[in-house]
Amino acid sequence: MKKSKRIKNKQEFDKFIKTTKYIKNSFFVLHFSKKVQLENRFGIAVGTSLGNAVTRNLLKRRTKEIIKDSQNLFQKDLDYIIIVRKSCVGLSYQEMKESLINLIKIGMQK
Known about the structure:
Blueprint: H1 10-19, E1 21-24, E2 28-34, E3 42-46, H2 53-69, E4 78-84, H3 93-109
Parallel strand pairs: 3-4
Antiparallel strand pairs: 1-2, 2-4
């Protein structure tokens, strides 16, 4: 993911999570808000309670790949933060992808 498409600043990340709408399922929480910059941006949060660094990085890489493959599902006028939940640890890539895509589709209906 390009640097311009990432939300990395801690203050911005925290403010985004506290003030935006969100939807969730048992594997992900998806926060979304009107975008600030020209293109929509994404943030990915994986807590330390999900496992060691190898596990957390695997979940981040898989989530980034799902975002990359599903760009056409995201609305162009929104920024997103995806929080990975602990129940996601044992899932295969395909199960993660189906779960996140279903959540995105539900979010776009609201």
